[in-house]
Specification:
- By secondary structure, this protein is an alpha+beta fold.
- The protein is built from ten helices and 15 strands.
- The strands form five sheets. It has a five-stranded mixed beta sheet, sandwiched between helices.
- Helix 4 links the parallel strand 4 and strand 5.
- Helix 3 packs across helix 4 and helix 7 packs parallel to helix 8.
- Bound molecules: coenzyme A.
- The site of coenzyme A has 17 residues, from helix 2, helix 6 and helix 7.
């Protein structure tokens, strides 16, 4: 078995910053309500015509490549974790073309806020079985395009962004992606979704139904309960499988959904809150981008150092959730 490790990280956010006061001009809410219930103070939103998830994903990917002066031609595979593509057939190929990674195969991975965790795990399989050497994974979402901006229950939560990581093959002894634990409960898929609503087509000769995707719909209370119960269980299972305990953890890097969820998960696991990596006050919930965005910031702030153990958990629509434990080797 080959080893796998993250050798570079990059991220990108749009320029436009919308704070809670700005949102309170379009829906009945307040900075105090949003900060108290979620911890979010502001979020970034992608504006401009013809701007899409591809632009953010490209920027994040290039930053990760440039940091280590890697030629895009060295990339074997690009996995774009996104649930807001600008082409239903996938956006990863557009990112591949823009980056100039001509030798890479590219595909989308749709798993909402768990997307980046699933991308790490998927890339690791390709590396550990010897198929590929360098894989660029990108978590990117522009949920601002799928929000009903008159729905105060959801429009306060989300923001746009992208984060990327390059995973490279290494010796088995240097393997840094230590283990993972993944789950899905499709029976709860209605709790958080962007549903496809169909109607009878004008061409009714074939009784054909055609439709359109709607806005994000969410049962906030149920999603909250799901996250605070399932995520700690996933982390515990994953750590147990690696014969590690919560005492061995240096950093807890959860999907940045809500400050209260982050704290509740840490409390349930008796992990000191000083070990929580969080930047959601500045970006809100950026879906598949949130984990690499927070990882990149923590690295830039020199929080994470060599040999630190980082527990990463994603959770969200599906409902899907999971954990990956890594050792920081750079
Ligand atoms: N501003 C002001 N009031 C608001 C509001 C807003 N933006 N959104 C809802 N309210 C009101 C409700 O109408 C309700 O009023 P009522 O009591 O008069 O009916 C009250 O605030 C409480 O609403 P409720 O939905 O019970 O709030 P909550 O404490 O559950 O908090 C969330 C709402 C969305 C912040 C919380 O449920 C949550 O964070 N859930 C998880 C969501 C999430 O992380 N999703 C993504 C996962 S990937």
């Amino acid at each position: 078995m080959q080893g796998a490790r993250i050798i570079s990280v990059g991220s990108a956010v749009p320029d436009l910053c919308i704070n809670n006061k700005d949102i309170s001009k379009i829906v009945e809410t307040s900075d105090e309500w949003i900060v108290t219930r979620t911890g979010i103070k502001e979020r970034r939103v992608l504006t401009g015509s013809n701007k899409s998830v591809v632009d953010l994903a490209y920027c994040a990917g290039m930053k990760a490549l440039n940091k280590i002066h890697m030629d895009p031609l060295e990339i074997d595979l690009i996995i774009l974790a996104t649930s807001s593509p600008n082409d239903l057939f996938g956006s990863a190929s557009q990112v591949q073309a823009k980056i100039g990674a001509k030798k890479a195969v590219a595909f989308d991975l749709t798993a909402a806020c768990s997307g980046f965790v699933l991308a790490i795990v998927t890339a690791t399989q390709f590396i550990q079985n010897g198929s590929y050497k360098n894989i660029l994974i990108i978590g990117a979402d522009v949920l601002s395009k799928w929000i009903d901006w008159s729905d105060r229950k959801t429009c306060i939560l989300f923001g746009d962004g992208a984060g990327a990581a390059i995973i490279q093959a290494c010796s088995e002894e240097d393997n840094a992606i230590l283990g993972f634990q993944l789950n899905t409960d499709g029976k709860q898929s209605d709790e958080l979704s962007i549903i496809y609503k169909e109607d009878i087509s004008p061409l009714n000769t074939f009784k054909l139904f055609q439709g359109q995707f709607q806005y994000i719909s969410m049962n906030g209370k149920e999603v909250y309960k799901f996250a605070v119960s399932k995520v700690p269980a996933s982390i515990t299972k994953c750590l147990n499988s690696l014969h590690l305990s919560t005492r061995d953890i240096n950093w807890l890097l959860l999907h940045q959904a809500n400050k209260r969820i982050l704290k509740a998960v840490a409390d349930r696991l008796s992990i000191d809150t000083s070990k929580i990596i969080s930047n959601l006050s500045k970006y809100g919930n950026t879906s598949a981008a949130s984990i690499p965005l927070a990882l990149d910031e923590a690295l830039q702030n020199n929080k994470i150092t060599k040999d630190d153990i980082i527990v990463i958990s994603g959770f969200g629509a599906g409902l899907t959730w999971g954990t990956v434990v890594i050792k920081w080797k750079c």
